[in-house]
Amino acid sequence: MTTNASDTMPASAPDASRIEAIIRGRMGDPFEILGPHKTDGGAMGLTVFAPDAAEVRALTPEGDEIAPLTRINPEGVFWGEMPEGFDYGTPYRLAMRAGDHSWERDDPYRFTPVLGEMDEYLVAEGRHEEIWKRLGAHPVTHEGVEGVSFAVWAPNARRVSVVGQFNAWDGRRHPLRRRFGAGLWELFVPGLAMGDLYKFEIVGAHGDLQPLKADPMSFRQEQPPATGSIVHGMHRHDWQDGDWMESRAKGSLHDKPVSIYEVHLGSWRRGADGEVLDYDTIGGLLVDYLTEMNFTHVEFMPVSEHPFTGSWGYQPVGLFAPTSRYGTPEQFAAMVDRLHQAGIGVIVDWVPAHFPSDAHGLANFDGTALYEHADPRQGFHQDWNTLIYNFGRNEVANFLRCSGTFWLDKYHIDALRVDAVASMLYLDYSRNEGEWIPNQYGGRENLDAIEFLKGTNHQVEARTPGAATIAEESTAFPGVSRPVDQGGLGFDFKWNMGWMHDSLSYIQNDPVHRKYNHHQMTFSIHYAWSENFVLPISHDEVVHGKGSLLNKMPGDRWQKFANLRAYLGFMWTHPGKKLLFMGCEFGQEREWNHDVSLDWHLLEDEKHKGAQSLVRDLNRIYRDEKALHALDCDPHGFEWVDGADDERSIFAFLRKADSGTRPALVISNMTPVVREEYHIGLPEGGDWVELLNTDDEAYGGSGVVNTGKLKSRQEECHGRSVSLSLRLPPLATVILVPDR
């Protein structure tokens, strides 16, 4: 029979100060008092905090009573001396009653730790390469009981508790065990399962209660604006992309066609009433569209969970959780799988440079600047009002590296496009004199960030063969895509921001003025192989007042489309892999708006449909013609035929591969003047054919094309002994190949 509440403290019960620490939420290590403990007399006592209960009994797992507990504090602390034979490893359950309601549960404070000493050691060293398996929330069976293990890094906290609906969001009820070796806190909570909502309640280093924190390692979070973490565990998806993954592991992308379609999942397509589509629906539509359009890869703007939709994902708080805006982790995995089975690679934007200061996120996580630098000259991004990771801290660098390899490993992502690399590399990025702190040598380079990037790229290469990393890096920092063992940062590719800015600046000029800016289209060849480049026309070029790609083009409507087609033809034949933001392929007219769908109705117009058809054919030809992609990263794959015809704004060059591959001759006429009998030198004789002409009527052009076979002749031109003549269309790019 259970005793009633008592104000009389048994002599062998825990001391009053510890009882007070429990009920006031100040107990730094609850295992010092809760659960079974030796009494001063050598017997075993059991302490339970159960503020909802009027009576508590200890039972065997079979339901037999072991002993009643006495309420030794009116706020719900119970204690009882256990019979002989009861020890630390003895299994038991707790039977509780309040009024007419009774229930049973296992006691979290009877279980041994889930984390091991090796976990502590590797976390502290910054070498725990699968940290997602140990930290966070994991449905497990521990010592024969089903529940959820929670673990979090908060080295400066005085107390860490897990809270949720299961404990009335009361941080006193489930304080975590403190692991002093590495600043980890952990607790196995029996009876919890997938779908349970939770956060961490943290008493900071100075005794101040922090805002409730989402789990940095959660696999699933509530749909914003809600901010809770959801017990989920690793996604449960039966992958069917084995052939793709096996093929991926055997090689690199440097000599392969890479044509990337950049997508914002929330605004690519929407439902009939403007509703956001889920991963299943988007995945099916994307597979069909990308297959039709011959893109080799899709790149998703950040899919990591983020609180503010208007950040487009570039201010994430859940680096291990696909955003719940579009569905579950299983649905995201299924979308990736479906794309792979269709032969389409998947790239995601990954953001290790900075994070938002939202109260539920990483900011001031344990009451100190834990993930970020404390000094705003190092830890605050003025441009974005975000916080900068402390890359020099082992645990932070490890957390970020693991988040990158997690997507490649567990979600079969093929490449990470690393955002804002320039902001990571330089301590004075977007800062004035006196607003930054030099490195130990007095320089502006962020040495910790450099080592972090090298370490990340090394870990990606070692753990996920065939996966790639791509740097969005806008400066002349040397060796971004050079291997680490050769002194580089180790990225596979770098965005060619110089080409993007120069070529867009050129194409926006009225054709009559282009001859004065000819160098803007030729300069990129001077450094085209200093890095392994991707040519990006990304979302950044069609927002914030910059206008759409189509509307950057000068002239009337016909000329706008002609310029667009000529420019895309030049881009697809220029050395480097290709990236095009969604909508640019069909000439989206208005600026991109993340809150609404692209204007797919424009495809009812022949000009827009023609632009789309051109991109489809450019992708096909780029993929099929080895000369246009095999040596994208090798100077032997390019040769000027005439790069100096500034007066007529004509560019002519060859793309080449090995000796057995036919070359491709590319000619771009960036004026609206038709050049009849345009004479061009050839690398070889014989018949040539026009493989593509952006002025073809099928693309909405004027139809100045070259049909049939073009006969070469033994007549010198452009320093070559063989040449031919053709009709060079206005504002157009032409691709010629030998007829063999």
Automatic annotation (TrEMBL):
The active site is at 419 (nucleophile), 472 (proton donor). Keywords: Carbohydrate metabolism, Glycogen biosynthesis, Glycogen metabolism, Glycosyltransferase, Transferase. Coiled coil: none annotated. This is 1,4-alpha-glucan branching enzyme GlgB. One of its GO terms (molecular function) is hydrolase activity, hydrolyzing O-glycosyl compounds. It is an enzyme of class 2 (transferase). HAMAP family: GlgB (MF_00685). Belongs to the glycosyl hydrolase 13 family. GlgB subfamily. Catalyzes the formation of the alpha-1,6-glucosidic linkages in glycogen by scission of a 1,4-alpha-linked oligosaccharide from growing alpha-1,4-glucan chains and the subsequent attachment of the oligosaccharide to the alpha-1,6 position. Its EC number is 2.4.1.18. It catalyses: Transfers a segment of a (1->4)-alpha-D-glucan chain to a primary hydroxy group in a similar glucan chain. The keyword Cytoplasm does not apply. Gene3D superfamilies: Glycosidases, Golgi alpha-mannosidase II, Immunoglobulins. The gene is glgB. It holds the Pfam family Alpha-amylase_C.
